[in-house]
Amino acid sequence: MSEVMAAIVCSDQKYWRDSPAMPNFKNEHRLAWDDLRLVLAIAREGSLIAAAERLGTSHPTVFRRARDLEHRLGVRLFERARRGYTLTAAGDEIHAVALKMEQEVEALEQRLAGRDLKPAGPIRLTTVDTLICGPLVPLLARFRARHPEIVLDVTVAGALSNLSRRDADIALRAGGEPPEALIGRKLARIAVAIYRGRDAAPVSPSELDKAHWVMPDDTLSHLASVRWLEAKRLDRRAVLRANSLLTLAQAARNGIGLAILPCYLADADPMLARVCAPMSELGSDLWLLTQPELSKVTRIRAFMDALYEDIQPLKALFEGKAAQAAGGLTT
Questions:
Q1: Which structural domain, as residue segments, surrounds residue 239?
Q2: Does a structural domain hold residue 96?
Q3: 11 and 106 in one domain?
Q4: Which among 56, 156, 171, 187 is placed 20 to 30 Å from 177, CA to CA?
């Protein structure tokens, strides 16, 4: 029997024969669910500070609980490395059991959640800042007016939240085909184009290599626009880099340089003007994603259906056709 399993099953009759200095273990010394959550958090985050944030507590509290857990079990669970904390062999055993228990509890919660009868309760939505500052919030307001018993918990993040770990219930994201473990609906095609400040000097598409640029930094290196700029060697002309497309839009508005921006954000801004037509090679799809189990929940289904319907009249905006129809395409 392993060290960890011996600690788990210990009682008045079973104790650590190989560690005579350790006291006998009673029922209250067995692993509790909070102990398992602690191990999961440290394993996932790799640091006590980040684990404390995930658990909603303080760094000293996590340190004390980790130390007490090791003392209580009589075995070392964590190793401090240069890049943070890793699990020992004993810690790995606990982690495997904790992960399985977490998955089973979450599956149960999802099955129970699917039994609700009316759209009510919380919905955790994760999306990006350009959608929040663009067309999304009016759609959320319309949804709330229809379903006042639903509370929206919106997280703005650059990286895709882990829906399988229930970091969020629904994700509204741009990208390619979603992972097989998720289901969703394709809402629209997202067009992007090059923009300058309305009061900046006009730039011809043939003079892009002579202009200044503002571009995403390394945290957004996954964007197709970054790869395009690097392939054209226009990244050498960058005079400002930022980790937010909103910052790049603001920089372009003030004439710092050209920026590649989604049309749904920039076409609605009177202080920005297009330099060229939408660039089809840089377009992506807008997806609304959730887990298969959650798609059966009344409030989740109501939100996804409503957003799908409300996005349809905005397709021209997302596809970069709204400005052209209004005569707003300028160079």
A1: 192-282
A2: yes
A3: yes
A4: 156
259 beta partners: 195
**pLDDT band at residue 13 using 50, 70 and 90 as cut-offs:** very low
Three-state secondary structure of 71-93: HHHCCCCEEEECCEEEECHHHHH
What is this structure's pTM?
0.64
Residue at which a domain ends, from 113, 143, 171: 113
pLDDT per position as a tens digit, 48-81: 998 998 888 999 999 999 999 999 998 999 998 8
Residues 107, 213 within the same domain:
no
Residue partners of 59: CB distance under 8 A and separation at least 6? 48, 49, 52
Q: How far is CA 60 from CA 71, 145, 186, 214, in A?
A: 16, 43, 45, 41
Residues 8 and 96 in one domain: yes
Residue 131 belongs to a domain: yes
The C-alpha atoms of residue 170 and residue 36 are separated, in whole angstroms, by: 26
Whether residue 306 sits in one domain with residue 161: yes
From the centroid of its chain, how far is CA 9? 39
Residue 112: its pLDDT value, please?
67
